[in-house]
Amino acid sequence: MFPISSKGSFGTMMGRSHLIIGTTVSLSVLQLAGMPVTAPAVTVALIGSLLPDIDEPNSLLVSKALPNSLIRLLQTILLPVAVFVYFYVQAKPWNLLLAILIAMVSFLPSRSLRKVLMFAIGLGLVFYGHAFAPWNLIAGSLLMLCTTLTHRGLTHTLYGTAVWTGLLYSTTHLQGPEIWVAGGTAYVMHLLADSLTNRGIRPLPPLKWRIRINLMSTGTKHGAVVENVCIVLALILAWIAFSPLFL
Question: What residue ranges are annotated as transmembrane (predicted)?
Answer without folding.
Answer: 69-89, 96-113, 119-145, 225-246
